Amino acid sequence: MGVSDLKANIHLMVDEIENESILQTLFEFLSGRKNNGQSSFWQGLIDAQRQEILLAFDESEKDENLIEKGQLFS
User: Fold this and answer.
1) Please, is 33 exposed, middle or buried when counting C-beta atoms within 10 Å of its C-beta (0-12, 13-18, 19+)?
2) pLDDT digits (tens, 9 = 90+) for 18-73
3) N vs C: which end of the chain shows fewer Cβ within 10 Å?
């Protein structure tokens, strides 16, 4: 998937989010990445917190662990 496709898919996902808190968190994350190339969020975590996030990411790669998008963003 190229840059254009990734951007288009991100735009579609964001358009479906109605939760202001999620949108604010996403905005802050992306703003931090744009401004300094690294997320201050990630840098502010301790190793155990980073490991939890990485584990959750690994678990999300398995279809049986996923939930429908509508359940997540409703």
Assistant:
1) middle
2) 888 888 888 887 876 665 655 567 778 889 998 998 898 888 888 888 888 888 77
3) N
Distance (Å) of CA 57 to CA 8, 17, 18, 50, 54: 22, 20, 23, 11, 5
Where do the domains of the chain lie? 3-72
d(CA 15, CA 28): 17
Q: Which of 44, 42, 43 is nearest to 53 (CA)?
A: 42
Burial status of residue 9 (CB atoms within 10 A of its CB: 0-12, 13-18, 19 or more): exposed
